[in-house]
Design goal:
By secondary structure, chain A is an alpha/beta fold. In chain A, 44% of the residues lie in helices and 9% in strands. In chain B, strands 3-2-4-5-7-6-12 form a 7-stranded mixed beta sheet, sandwiched between helices. A 5-stranded mixed beta sheet of chain B has the order 9-11-10-13-14, with helices on both faces. A two-stranded antiparallel sheet of chain B has the order 1-8. In chain B, helix 1 packs parallel to helix 7 and helix 3 runs parallel beside helix 4. The chains are: A alpha/beta, B alpha/beta.
Chain lengths: 376, 325
Amino acid sequence: MTDPVFGPAPEQAPEPELVQLLTPEGERVHHPGFDTDFTADELRGFYRDMTLVRRLDVEATALQRHGELGLWAQLLGQEAAQIGAGRALAPQDFVFPTYREHGVAWCRGVDPVRLLALFRGVDQGDWDPAEHNFGLYTIVIGAQTLHATGYAMGVQRDGLVGTGDPERDTAVVAHFGDGASSQGDVNEAFVFAASFNAPVVFFCQNNQWAISEPFERQSRIPLYRRSQGFGFPGIRVDGNDVLATYAVTRAALQRARDGQGPILIEAYTYRMGAHTTTDDPTRYRLSDDVEHWKLKDPIARLEVYLRRNGLADDAFLAEVAAEADALGERMRRECHALPDPSTHDLWDFVHAEKTAELAAQQAEYDAHAASFEEVR
Amino acid sequence: MATMTLAKALNAGLRSAMEDDDKVIVMGEDVGALGGVFRITDGLQKDFGDDRVIDTPLAESGIVGTAVGLAMRGYRPVVEIQFDGFVYPAYDQIVCQVAKIHYRSRGKVRIPMVIRIPFGGGIGAVEHHSESPEAQFVHTPGLKVVACSNPADAYAMIQQAIHSDDPVVFLEPKRLYHSTKAEVDESAPPAPLWQSRVVRPGADATLVAYGPTVSTCLDAATVAAEEGRSLEVIDLRTLSPLDLVPVVESVRRTGRLVVVHEAHVTLGLGAEIAARVTEECFHSLEAPVLRVGGFDTPYPPARIEEDFLPDLDRILDAVDRTFGF
């Protein structure tokens, strides 16, 4: 209903178009703003990435079911959003992930076994962010969006925005989800990024579910429109279309590197699996919904396109399948071989400069542990 | 050698740190043209520019969270939280991120951040402007927490905190910002940051304090001396790590200890100190360790805050009681 004085409520605006370059049926379509040409190698590369990342996810889920991992956060269904966003990066760009960006981690060269280590409980995800330009997995929802914004403010202070040098100009990506969009930190990140015109791309994978809560509980308007209220543009892309996700992210990153400030991308997708391996989606959502989204599968549509256009033959697909099998086998083997951490080391990284108090606690523990050795 | 207030000493210390290292940046609410509501950052933006002295939007989690990102990019942010009671919106970033990132990354990511918090009461302020939240941060592994009590320490300690590769919560006794002046020798080598210090030697009982209560304890010791009782006063300076070496040494001589802070007594620093001193000095103690602090109520309306805060009478009364056992 339109209020005579205040006008229509925003949710009455028509549903927006998605930016889409590849339909669920595998038809290549064109979009005036993002008319990108892809080489056959690029297209096959996307297929390979998505297939391997799906296998990574399936394998990790199986490892959890076998008791080898304490938990796993599945990415099933979000492969295109993550590979598109990950492959659009320049080497110098920096990414701040949530705990589900296994596909982006893959693109940044973080070994999948490092991800398993976190969920197995042998470490807390301690890859070197500076080595991969990929931050630490962040479990508190939305906290990393502020880190990304601050990092982008640092990039500005380093003079690496708008120089025109494609090898130096740097953008930052803040990943988050539809649930996180309600968090204060995400909204504060929008305020800071807008205020300082920081070179940060907010990449929201709207997978429709925050554990059991549907997107409608988080927002009354399409998420990408949130940015308007903060003073920067937003765009919705088909998050199950790797070509569109890649093209939109690449353009947004370039815009940020050029000094034109932040942007919000809403990658419209669906969480096909559970929130994590401890979750049971049958308690809160209809299987019809999941069946509907299966028809929009990101890998299947690209496979149809590749085959129909003679860009991939059986030999290529078999090669990727074999590579996936090898990855799965390596993940199982190396997961089993991950060493448990040593309790002696518990105190070592609390501070950069260890305190005398902690050194004393460590020595006390060592003596306690040694007393049991003597008994044996 | 110059004579300056605690506020001016902090300002001079910040200026010196910014001159020494161009990665040091100051950020917070009103820290730029205004120089901060207490004028601690007065003139810094004029001299170092608004890229290094950043007036932020009014969002404490945003301030600390973006400072984390700046630290990851190689900067050394010095964050001003305008008042103690405003730190809680940033509590998640401080406790879950600032304190844990070095640990989580097994040393690969350092967060050399200083979080300055004007703390304590006695300025006649409205609610949320007079709190003493230090125990919450001392209870958080991964943070270091210090409190200065005088201009010379303020000048040295703020620079040492900025130089530290660990995150430091830096507590400033706002009641003392502009109240007294003292000599500050800018060329003197500073005492190590992580050490407490005997600020008045004595023989009969030990008073332990930090921040605003140090001067109150020194006044109490002066009064006690007139009555023939010799009190030793120790300024903790560092709350995490807690340096109790001088305290233990003192209590072994005096046998009596009173801990004084403005924070609520229950589970305050005094509780931890009492436990540790009991463990270390059990056979030297002539009386239980007593605590004088804020009552276990929210901070009161300003007209009665002096009844809430530890004063000479309550401190000397506690000392008397240690002689009654």
